[in-house]
From TrEMBL:
Ranges in coiled-coil conformation: none
Name under which the protein is recorded: PAS domain-containing protein
Domain (PAS): residue spans on this chain: 16-104
Database matches in InterPro entries: PAS (IPR000014), PAS-like_dom_sf (IPR035965)
């Protein structure tokens, strides 16, 4: 039952979430990610390498971040990109098991736009 709660949180996120294992295989994409990367294959990307979606320089940086994550259990978040057009910052986040061992990673998008929704607008 616990996994359903975690999946629900990820699936409800307005930002794309692509989760990868340490072999760089895409193991999960939330609905926002599937839609965002539709032109690159969408849901069909699950099971494929994230490295196929990046250039050589980006793949080298991914490897550098993974090596840094492995150095210390406290190394869990790296700022990787600023997208001015979408007004967002992008991070790589370590995923660890209960013992703190690195098991994968994901890319986190944090949008910086001021919220336009009214407070508690439920109509």
């Amino acid at each position: 039952m616990e996994n359903n709660f975690f999946k629900s949180v990820i699936d409800a996120d307005d930002a794309p979430v692509v989760i990868c294992d340490l072999e760089h295989t895409i193991v999960y994409m939330n609905p926002t990610a599937v839609k965002r990367y539709e032109k690159r294959g969408g849901a069909a990307l699950v099971g494929r390498s994230i490295k196929g979606c990046h250039n050589g320089d980006s793949n080298d940086k991914i490897e550098q971040v993974i090596a840094w994550f492995k150095k210390d259990k406290g190394n869990n978040k790296v700022y990787t990109f600023r997208n001015e057009k979408e007004n967002k910052d992008v991070y790589m986040i370590a995923l660890r098991n209960d013992e703190g061992e690195l098991i994968g990673y994901y890319e986190k998008h944090e949008y910086r736009n001021i919220e336009t929704m009214k407070l508690y607008d439920m109509e």
